[in-house]
Amino acid sequence: MKKKIKRILITGAEGFIGSHVVELLLLKGYKINAFINYNFLNNKGHLSQIKKTKNINFYFGDIRDEKIVDKAMKNCDAVMNLAALIGIPYSYEAPSSYVSTNIMGTLNLLNYSLKHKIQRFIHTSTSEVYGSAQFVPITEKHPLVGQSPYSATKIGADHMVTSFNKSFKLNTIILRPFNTFGPRQSLRAVIPTIIAQAISGKKIKIGNLKTRRDFTYVYDTAEAFLKAITCNNKAYGKTFNLGTGYDFSILEIIRLVEKILNKKLIIKTDRKRVRPSKSEVLRLISDNSLAKKTLNWKPKYLKIKGFEKGLKKTIEYMKKDILSYNNDISDYIK
Ligand SMILES: NC(=O)c1ccc[n+]([C@@H]2O[C@H](COP(=O)([O-])OP(=O)(O)OC[C@H]3O[C@@H](n4cnc5c(N)ncnc54)[C@H](O)[C@@H]3O)[C@@H](O)[C@H]2O)c1
Hints:
This protein is α/β, with parallel strands linked by helices. The protein contains eleven helices and 13 strands.
């Protein structure tokens, strides 16, 4: 009989999605080894408010380093890998860093998962692996097209994870979030960029207004990670789209933010945010039926009403924290 999953190693724990996953799993009574990217400030990122207790240990390191990964994985029953370099524009500048972190880092975690007899390895993919949709809604059978170095490295990591399931019988589950949004997201992402500018002024400098994305509120995304721990073994070796099944254009988001803040916004195209045309992914919308059926995942922030509710919560959070965001948006609010 398999041991119950009690302690989970979470990489990228201090990041946007990772910190929400850590909080949810602590709330549900799991013990967490939080793996935080080493930095000279000893900063715990979005986990800085959480103190070390018997339920959470912190490990500072790099997922590519063997010694610290070995140490952090000791006594763990499951691994959740959320660590990655995620910015698409920076992947044009530094593709080899992306290969090293996203592929080699994942491989390192996989190798040590075999050593530590990890019961479940939950890996985070991205909808960017599909490239521009060849059909919608996108199912997990859609071809994978690396339209940016970021996407190419995430495809590589996904294949590496699947190969460990097929070659070494590691119990892997790949979660493939479509765009996620909510409190704590950095300004690299489009929704916080729009909101920060809308709170601070009237002008919105933005890239392509027509691109459409399927946006999931981060609480729903975190729930899927919980489901990946509690679901039955039918999920092993599989990949699951995490999206709502509804999409919105950038222009529609600006209009909703305008409505919530009750202020007229002026839109200006920012050339720096427009991706090279063949790299731009125009539309992503998910078919999430496999996650609903196998993981029993039911996103709550659905359709325009749910999206607006998520936007409101994000705006409330950003209004409170706008001073720290302002350091990053000084370019926009001049
Ligand atoms: N935010 C989204 O919309 C979205 C959509 C699809 C997929 N994802 C995936 O979700 C995961 C989490 O993304 P996020 O949005 O929370 O981004 P994030 O940048 O907030 O989190 C990534 C985390 O990885 C850590 N990290 C980076 N390199 C590392 C290394 N070498 N060693 C250890 N840690 C390292 C960073 O410090 C950060 O905490 C990523 O795998 C990303 O590809 C995100």
